[in-house]
Amino acid sequence: MTETVKGPASYFPSIEKKYGRSIAEWKDLIRTSPLAKHMELVGWLKTEHGLGHGHANALVAHTLAEAGGK
User: Fold this and answer.
1) Rounded to two decimals, what is the model's pTM?
2) Which of 53, 17, 46 is nearest to 29 (CA)?
3) How far apart are CA 34 and CA 4, in angstroms?
4) Mean of pLDDT over the chain
5) Domain ranges in the chain?
6) Measured CA distances, 70 to 18, 20, 21, 63 (Å)
7) Which pLDDT score is estimated for 16?
């Protein structure tokens, strides 16, 4: 039986399909951004890269959680 992915990672397949970049690429962009706050990063992904709010929020939340908050 396969385990269902929950939380921000549940958005990852649709993010890759819709925007044509791998999750690793998105995370690299977030990590190298001069911005530090969650909502700053979400806004940046939305305005500069055309992501929807939910997708941007999921990427930022998952990336910052991995980094311990950035």
Assistant:
1) 0.88
2) 46
3) 34
4) 92
5) 8-67
6) 26, 25, 22, 9
7) 97
